Every structure is written in C-alpha cells, then in structure tokens.
C-alpha cells in the first residue's frame, strides 16, 4: 500500500490518517521494530522511521534522548533499512524521516536503491529544500519513492507552491515554529497553514493530502487536528511512553494505549 492510498482509505472512512514516528534503534533495534508493529496493530495508518543523526538540530529533547540512545546502542543506516523492512512487512506504508547529510554521505542513488529494496515508501526530508534536492528528485523518480517536504507557518504562498509541486505521498505541515515535541495546545496558526496549503494544491489540480505534525500528544489534540488536516502526525508522545516506562513491556503497553486513544481521536474529529 502506498502512502497516498493509506490517506485515501482513511478519507473514505470519514476520518484523518494517523501517522506515527519512532527512531530506528530506540530503545533497541528489536524494541523499535516491536514498538512500530504495536503502533500499527493499535491503529496507525502510516509509520515514519527516524534515521538517528548525531546533530538533530530540529528535534526537541524527547527525540534527542531517543536518538542518543539509538546511536549509543550502535544503530547504523543498514539497521534503519532492516527496521523499515520489518515494519513494511505489516502492510502499512513505511517512510524514513531523516536529515539530508546521512543520505548525501551514503550516496543518494544507493540510499534510494536500498530503501526501495527494503520496501520503504519514501523519505521525509525536513532540512532539504526543492532547490537543493535535484539528486533526490531524480533518484526517487527512478525508484518510485515518495518524497515529503515540509511547509511551515512562515512559508509564503510562493514557497508552498514550489514545495507542494515536488511532493509525492503527502505534504508535511509543521505547525510549530521551533523544535519538535508534544505541546499542551495545537498552534493557533495550524488550521490556516493547512488551508493555505490545500488551496495551492487544489490550484495545481492534484489531491495531495496534508498531514500536520509537531505537537500532538493526546486524543483530544488528535481530534482537533483531524478536524482540518488529512493526517495527524505523532512522534514525541510515543517516545515519551517508552522513555518513562520501567521496561519494554510496560512501554509497549503505554504505546498501545496511546495509539488507541489517538486512533479514536482522528475518528472523533470528523
């Protein structure tokens, strides 16, 4: 199943899609795979696997803690592909979310090849601009991979048009100015950002979905976001359940509980 298909299926059911994020290798390689499978089993429609990076400048403390644990545990790019393969085997589209430097260092064509071979759906690249993404646009076309770029509250209409013009799968709307992390409330500018992005997509004649991320941490917030976005993206809240748990079993129970709450929320928001 492709990412677009997962969004379309959710839309046909009268709800938003639930997208869950987790870094590969956290809390361990096996623990990450088991957690992602739990998220799928409890209601996630799409999974984002984070590629741990030594300088996660856009991430808040929760994700930084998880990424640090993964790197200390010895996780490598090959393990990220192994994680993708294991999660994609569930039938849920699985993307990699990564800063651009590791892809560039690995080799853009080689990364696209190995991601496609693992059954990955594509890449989310928060720090890559369309102007600098020529090699990735070519490689993703050659391998049939989705490419997800970010629009932000500060993006002009012209900028949104350029970004959405090269996206495939969905458009990632970042609702916060600043680093990632769950918040007590959804940013008040988020609905307008999604509305602006949708208007520009519609003018282009496509049906590209818009997912909103950065800040959602509970079912009530998921319902709020589902009221105006096609997808609700959650990351730090899942990681926090694992970080706060005394052991993996307890963490998995917490992740399952949170996923079920969020899945109910994305249905209540429509």
Entry summary:
The protein is of the alpha/beta class and 270 residues long. The chain contains twelve helices and nine strands.
How would you portray this structure in words?
This protein has helices at 3-12, 29-42, 61-72, 77-88, 100-106, 108-117, 134-143, 157-166, 190-203, 219-226, 236-243, 248-268, and strands at 17-23, 46-50, 94-97, 122-124, 146-148, 150-152, 171-174, 210-213, 231-234. It has 270 residues and is α/β, with parallel strands linked by helices. It has a single domain, classed as TIM Barrel. A nine-stranded parallel beta sheet has the order 5-4-3-2-1-9-8-7-6. It starts with a helix and ends with a helix. Mean pLDDT is 92; it is low at 177-184. This is Tryptophan synthase alpha chain. Tetramer of two alpha and two beta chains. Belongs to the TrpA family.
Task: List strands and helices in order, with pairings.
Elements: H1 3-12, E1 17-23, H2 29-42, E2 46-50, H3 61-72, H4 77-88, E3 94-97, H5 100-106, H6 108-117, E4 122-124, H7 134-143, E5 146-148, E6 150-152, H8 157-166, E7 171-174, H9 190-203, E8 210-213, H10 219-226, E9 231-234, H11 236-243, H12 248-268
Parallel strand pairs: 1-2, 1-9, 2-3, 3-4, 4-5, 6-7, 7-8, 8-9
Helix pairs in contact: 2-4, 2-12, 6-7, 8-9, 10-12, 11-12
Provide the gyration radius in Å: 17 Å
| CATH class annotation | Alpha Beta
CATH topology: TIM Barrel
The largest beta-sheet arranges its strands as 5-4-3-2-1-9-8-7-6
Question: What order do the SSEs take from the amino end to the carboxyl end, as H and E?
Answer: HEHEHHEHHEHEEHEHEHEHH
Cα-to-Cα separation, first versus last residue: 24 Å
Unreliable stretches, pLDDT < 50, 5 or more residues? Answer: 177-184
Main beta-sheet annotation? 9 strands, parallel
Range of helix content: 40-55%
Number of strands: 9
Number of helices: 12
Shape by Cα distribution: globular
What's the rounded overall pLDDT mean?
Answer: 92
Tell me the CATH architecture: Alpha-Beta Barrel
CATH superfamily: Aldolase class I
* Number of domains as seen in the coordinates: 1
Which secondary-structure class do the elements indicate? alpha/beta
Strand content: 5-15%
